[in-house]
Amino acid sequence: MVQEKEIATVLSLEPRDDFVETPYIRETMERAMAYLQAGFPIHFRGVAGTGKSTLAMHAASQLGRPVMLIHGDDEFSTSDLVGGEYGWRAKKVIDNFIHSVLKTEEEMHKSWTDNRVTIACERGFTLIYDEFTRSRPEANNVLLSILEEKMLNFPRGRGRYDDHLEVHPDFHAIFTSNPQEYAGVHKSQDALADRMITIDLDYQDYETEVAITCAKSGIPQPNAERIVGLVRDLRENPHYPSKPSVRAAVMIARVLANNNSIRGITDPLFPRICLDVLSPRRSEDGQSQNGRDRAKMLLEKAIGTYRLTSTTVPLQEEVFPNG
Question: pTM (2 decimals)?
Fold first, then answer.
């Protein structure tokens, strides 16, 4: 039985107006949809900023079914996915129809509550399991029979209901994860990985990153090209201890586009903004001062280069929406 509070967690997704479709994204989505429509779960795997969650949401919206969203958590157990017995339900009947006879009947049993995986399997929803490797492998074991035999087995029985559930034919599953070297993730069991088709995502190509930066910030393309070029140069620099993604380009562009007092790349505040956004989260020498100073020097040099040279438009022709 599905309770009302759980139905409220169902999402209805529609394609976003600012979703960018370049040849790179279009080809990736064509493969993903082909796998889903053939009945296979898919797994978007890649480092932060490669668009895993966005692609997962977009793929789910293309299926046209309600969506159940789960974010992986190290504290998850199987019951957090499929449900469990929470609390007790009591029933008491007092029969005093004959005044001289008092009949009392009491009944008590545990109350079962479905969780999101069960709801998705039962109703044919699309399950998005974001960062599923952040959950412990033993919690995800219940997914093995769902993806292979199309059968959900309840670990302790579903209260007074059946101890198994046949998965709805419209059910689909989409997973995302970061590589295993990231902090806070677990190694996924081979049996689970073998049941899904993994699409490895790398940083987007130049054209896609420029298009995303324009769509998310509203700045003109020539200026987006400069910002993206700066971010990509730092990412590809083997001596720079961080790998900034397109998120950094979007952050810089949105600050410039939404602040009337900033005149764009030629503004004196532009280097400071870039330093704040692009400063490495960690250095190759750990947290040593030398490592931080070296990273800052590389960053300042790259920013200076992009302020003095351009392969797009002359600096005097630079135009921002609010400038």
Answer: 0.79
